[in-house]
Amino acid sequence: MYRLWHWLFGWDYILWSNSADSGVALVQTDHDGHIWYWRYRSTSVADAIYKPEQVRWLTCSSSKYFKE
Questions:
Q1: Pick from 36, 34, 58, 57: which is nearest to 45 by CA?
Q2: Going by fewer Cβ within 10 Å, which terminus of the chain is more open, N or C?
Q3: Could you tell me the residue range of the domain that residue 57 belongs to?
Q4: Contacts of 56 (CB under 8 A, 6+ apart)
Q5: With contact defined as beta carbons under 8 Å apart, do 7 and 20 qualify?
Q6: CA nearest 30: which of 46, 54, 13?
């Protein structure tokens, strides 16, 4: 489904994981240029992406957000 949304709307998605869970999330940026995603939207837990290696990029390259 996320590939269809990327194709239709241009939204970028990542695969995140931690020791307890994993999931697919929409990449978001704020007006200050911070890159983040909702880990658990229902409980309002958001995580910042500080390094491109932190997550797996599904629909785009990390160079779109991180200038190397």
A1: 36
A2: C
A3: 2-64
A4: 14, 15, 16
A5: no
A6: 46
Which residues are within 8 A (CB) of 4 and not within 5 positions of it... i.e. 6 or more apart? none
Joined together, the tokens standing for residue 24 give 């697919």
How far is Cα 11 from Cα 5, in angstroms, rounded to an integer? 6
- The closest alpha carbon to 57, from 3, 12, 2, belongs to 12
> pLDDT tens across 47-64, in order?
999 999 999 999 999 999
Tell me which DSSP letter residue 41 carries.
Answer: G
Residue 44: pLDDT band with limits 50, 70, 90: confident
- Give the chain's domain count: 1
